[in-house]
Amino acid sequence: EPMEKVTGKLLLARNKTMCTAESCTGGYIAHLLTSIPGSSSFYDGSVVSYSYKAKEDLLGVSREILESKGAVSEEVVIQMAKGALASIQSDYVIAVSGIMGPDGGLPDKPVGTVWIAVGNKNKIEAQKLHFRFDRQRNTQLTATNALNMLRKFILTDI
């Protein structure tokens, strides 16, 4: 069963909702979730914030953090997650930022570097992952891993 369905069923069983703040996936997680009939019962919406300006204006990410840490950082995905929760008012959130390729990598952040944050208003967890595939596969892997990370977070959120 696809991870978006597993996560959706878990949210429905707990009568909870989620939202997303997507950068590198460009709305792909939202697409996966909204492809499920009845997903409006558990999915509230997304902010696709690709540029620094969109991250600042739509999610309240600090310009100073963007400039000092870069968009692909733990600090930024945590701020993206908090901003999405504040504006969309869901129970849970996924935030992602990364370098999907084939260009854009840096020595300390090669292509395939992704930060994922999941959480709720009380706690945000972030994780750094590294993928080594093409842009499409890196995007798919980011989405699946983000949804699984949220699933695990929900299961421990009592």
Question: Care to describe what's here?
Answer:
The chain has 158 residues and is α/β, with parallel strands linked by helices. It has six helices and five strands; from the N terminus they run αβαβαααβββα. It has helices spanning 3-14, 28-34, 52-59, 63-69, 74-88, 135-156, and strands at residues 18-22, 43-48, 92-98, 113-119, 124-130. Helix 2 links the parallel strand 1 (18-22) and strand 2.
Distance between the termini: 24 Å
Number of strands: 5
Strand percentage lies at: 15-25%
Mean pLDDT: 97
Query: How is the biggest beta sheet arranged?
Result: 5 strands, mixed
The DSSP helix count reads 6
Summarize the helix and strand pattern as letters. HEHEHHHEEEH
Helix content percent band: 40-55%
Report a brief summary of the structure.
The chain has 158 residues and is of the alpha/beta class.
Strand and helix map with partners:
Elements: H1 3-14, E1 18-22, H2 28-34, E2 43-48, H3 52-59, H4 63-69, H5 74-88, E3 92-98, E4 113-119, E5 124-130, H6 135-156
Parallel strand pairs: 1-2, 1-3
Antiparallel strand pairs: 3-4, 4-5
Helix pairs in contact: 1-6
